[in-house]
Specification:
Blueprint (H helix, E strand, L loop, with lengths): L1 E7 L3 E8 L4 E9 H4 L19 E2 L1 H16 L7 E8 L4 E4 L3 H6 L7 H5 L8 E2 L7 H11 L2 H8 L8 H11 L1 H5 L3 E4 H10 L5 E2 H4 L5 E2 L4 E2 L1 H7 L10 E2 L4 E4 L2 H7 L6 E3 L2 E2 H8 L8 E5 L3 E7 L11 E4 L5 E7 L3 H10 L4 H10 L8 E3 L5 E2 L2 E2 L5 E3 L2 H4 L4 H20 L8 E5 L6 H11 L2 E4 L5 H15 L3 H8 L18 H11 L1
Parallel strand pairs: 1-5, 5-15, 9-12, 16-24, 24-25
Antiparallel strand pairs: 1-2, 2-3, 4-7, 6-8, 10-11, 13-14, 16-17, 17-19, 18-19, 20-23, 21-22
Helix pairs in contact: 5-6, 5-7, 5-11, 13-19, 14-17, 15-17, 17-18, 17-21, 19-20
Bound molecules: adenosine-5'-diphosphate (ADP) and D-xylulose.
Adenosine-5'-diphosphate (ADP) binds next to helix 14.
């Protein structure tokens, strides 16, 4: 009796299989898009050099990755023992499907791949993803149509935001009205993959649905005014919106025949990667703060009541365990750290050594480390701003540049998350970069909090597996979290810097961004 959790994130697709009765992880697998599917020309999971702020991915790549992932997993565990499945996807990205879609997924045939069979169903060849900043005009139009951003925020939990799905849909409708007319269904990455697994249209959960500027976070259902302000007849193009503890369907025969799953395995509605990580970090009840260092850096927590950002760049999403979570997202996360690392042709070891040998506060040298337009705060920078010595400003001081990048990221994170009024004693760190102790130390110092990581590192896939086990097997989610989300033994990182060590950096960063 196993539970499977899937994670379709920006750079990779991963899976985790747990045995909920024994309390153990049975198998893990991961497919990196850039490495395993180079034919899609997306080394970091998206098509580079999009125009006018566009960032898209090819949805066929996600389908090919899902198949590679299940092949890898099949070699590692007996998939016929899986009795519960759920998953999560990178948030906000959207997939546009024509009227062949439903018939196609109902009749998938194992003699051809998913991507080959679903290709004729796309009403839009590529999918805008969360890094896209092309919809400034559409955000303004939507806000104006409903009476201003304060109203958009009160209804949807966020002001109109460029990467959110509603503004993206509006842009598609305006730029390609025929394509929009041919669109019978719009899915998020999460509900698209869930639909494929079920061989039927899957609903969108409130965790991922709230990242669209279309869901009313009080009714937790589509908002008629926002739908109307976004595009004509949008309501009929969206699947139902549901709470996280909802069955989406049962596994399609395609997966039973091809990968050896049992027939009629229940699939729990998928959610967004961050809401899934909330569960996978054992933080679905208010009280814990999570910082995730994936492609994006995010800061989030379950909330006792709905709390939106008065300054407008933070978000309220549904909590898959019920209620809501608040979240702040930073586009310039891992890829910004990588850009600095690559500038000096460093690997992660010399990058880490540079952090270890440079002083807290970096001798007053600071960086706003934005290589692409940032959303927290919203600013259209294409390259970082550096302030310090001449050598530093000319990128001739690698060690100081590395420290300035990481300090700049977390000082900015602290400044932009004060609105949540959380003063965590412990920060629970996850995502690809969280394993780096030197980065974790900067987090501890900036937030003046202990930093802990979990023994299981893939929190998004773990959250999906826990949700599946809880919903389909009737197990208590909080007990499952307690069982699976234990912190890494003996590895707490304590703050070393004094509480005012970053005051000057914060002042300088705020000044540079003013
Ligand atoms: P996503 O889920 O968004 O696809 P991940 O959580 O898998 O992303 O994180 C991937 C990122 O982790 C990579 O872009 C890389 O920059 C970062 N990473 C991997 N190893 C290290 C390391 N040792 N130190 C810092 N960052 C790292
Ligand atoms: C959250 C956000 C990103 C994506 C990709 O609002 O845009 O964190 O979910 O991870």
């Amino acid at each position: 009796m196993l539970a499977l959790g899937l994670d379709a994130s920006t750079q990779s697709c991963s899976a985790l299989v747990i045995d909920p009765d024994a309390g153990v992880v049975v198998a893990e697998a991961s497919v990196n898009f850039g490495e395993r599917l180079p034919q899609y020309n997306a080394p970091s999971g998206f098509i580079p050099n999009g125009k006018n702020g566009e960032v898209h991915s090819d949805p066929r790549m996600w389908l090919d990755a899902l198949e590679l992932l299940l092949e890898d997993l099949q070699a590692k565990c007996d998939l016929s023992k899986v009795t519960a499945i759920s998953g999560a996807g990178q948030q906000h990205g959207s997939v546009y499907l024509n009227n062949q879609w439903l018939k196609c997924i109902e009749n998938l045939n194992t003699t051809a791949s998913l991507s080959a069979q679903i290709e004729p169903c796309f009403a839009r060849a590529t999918s805008p993803i969360w890094m896209d900043t092309s919809t400034g005009e559409e955000c303004r139009e939507i806000a104006e149509a409903v009476g201003g951003d304060t109203i958009v925020c009160a209804k949807s939990g966020s002001i109109a935001i460029e990467r959110f799905t509603g503004p993206q849909i509006r842009r598609f409708y305006k730029n390609n009205p025929e394509g929009y007319a041919q669109t019978a269904r719009i899915h998020l990455v999460s509900s698209f993959l869930c639909s494929i697994l079920c061989g039927a249209d899957a609903p969108i959960d409130t965790g991922d649905g709230a990242g669209m500027n279309l869901l009313n976070i009080h009714a937790w259902d589509w908002d008629a005014d926002l739908l109307k302000a976004t595009a004509p007849d949008l309501g009929k193009r969206l699947p139902a919106a549901v709470q996280g503890a909802t069955t989406a369907g049962t596994l399609s025969d395609y997966f039973v025949q091809k990968y050896g799953f049992a027939q009629n395995t229940p699939v729990t509605v998928f959610t967004g990667d961050n809401p899934s990580s909330l569960v996978g970090m054992g933080a679905s009840q208010p009280g814990k703060v999570v910082v995730s260092l994936g492609t994006s850096d995010t800061f989030f927590a379950a909330m006792p009541s709905v709390l939106a950002d008065p300054q407008g760049c933070g978000h309220v999403f549904g909590n898959p365990a019920g209620g809501s979570m608040s979240l702040q997202c930073f586009v310039n996360g891992s890829l910004a750290r990588e850009a600095v690392k690559d500038k000096f042709e460093y690997g992660w070891d010399p990058f880490t050594a540079a952090l270890e040998k440079t002083p807290t506060g970096n001798g007053g040298q600071v960086m706003v480390p934005f290589f692409r337009p940032e959303i927290s705060p919203r600013i259209n920078l294409g390259a970082p701003i550096l302030k310090g010595s001449e050598a530093f400003e000319n990128w001739n001081d690698p060690d100081a540049a590395i420290r300035a990048c990481v300090e700049g990221q977390f000082v900015n994170m602290k400044l932009r998350t004060n609105w949540m009024q959380l003063q965590p004693e412990v920060i629970y760190l996850t995502g690809g970069a969280s394993k780096n102790d030197a980065i974790a130390q900067v987090v501890a110092d900036v937030f003046q909090a202990k930093v802990q990581r979990l023994a299981v590192s893939s929190s998004v896939a773990l959250g999906a597996a826990l949700r599946a086990a809880s919903h389909s097997r009737g197990l208590n989610l909080h007990e499952l979290e307690h069982q699976f989300c234990q912190t890494e033994a003996g590895k707490t990182i304590e703050p070393k810097a004094s509480s005012c060590a970053y005051d000057a950096t914060a002042e300088a960063i705020a000044g540079l961004l003013a």
